[in-house]
Fold:
Amino acid sequence: MIQPPNRLAKILDAEDAAPIESLLRNAEARVEALEPVFAASLFPQVSALAQLCRRPDAALQADARAIRHATLSVVETAAITRRHDMVPVALGICDLLDRWIFAREWRPRVVRAQAEGLYALASATGLSAADRATLTADLLRIRCEDRTPGCRAPAQDEARSLQRSGSAA
Amino acid sequence: MGLPTKRLGLRDVQPLLVDDNPQSADLIGGILMGFGISHAAKCLSASAARKLLVRRAFDVVMINCEMADEDGFTLVREIRADPKSPNGCVPVIMLSASTPESTVLMARDAGANFTIAKPVSPLILLERFLWIAQSNRAFVNEESYRGPDRRFRTVPRPPGEAERRAEDLRLTATPDRALSQDEINGLFQ
Structure:
């Protein structure tokens, strides 16, 4: 064990210290200023993701890591722009891709359905909040229930966990 | 951990942000500027960060777990590989848009101090900075693990005891036979 110097400790007794509330206010103002940029980028990101997922199975499998990476960007952008209906769907696509990358469990129909659902959520500006919530719930249900023949059946606790993550987000 | 009512001075903090998502880097850069930090270094790849890490000492390093060309865990392990290097013991905060337990454990075992979910919020980031600034965590430098002590609560060894091992937990006096219920009752009379 060693005790290295704590280089961040200097923030506690700096001469030019400012109230925490003021630091947070300044930072939040900067985040708010960036929100329109993020909002404008959300649909192009989702559109590009949907395009990637419309390709043949072999292409999806080969690019699974890149698609997962693109999906994580969507997760982040959707969360910043308060599109909380899209976050669990995008996280679900990440989960499906993880199952391919790490367990070779491949469910292309569900991946494509989730990507198209995400695209619908991003593009359908006429949908009410209730309609979007219904679509999100349906996509979550499809992901939990639909299994490619030969894959293991979804465990009850896993389905519950997915539902919890969806409702929490 | 809540934020106490107090003042903080972050202007001279030198952070390094490693994230290949330019939007995410802009967001965190904006938050750092809001905190008054004027010396934030940003790298859009692990390879760019690697070059900077050998040249400059940073006060805190924030790394995206999931980067396209190289994951962030490898970079943390490299940073921790030599605790005597300028950034060997630097506080590391991992960032991830997806934070299942497996990701948090991987980050911890790679030697990171914290993992926080993206998108990063100003409150959470400031809380973590404050936590690190106030903490006095020792640094473990062993072959199997290099990084901050993973125990948040360390109980000192009793005086005169050099070290503790699992065998110390075993009973020193094992009874030859189990006591009968009547014998147990007799002890309480």
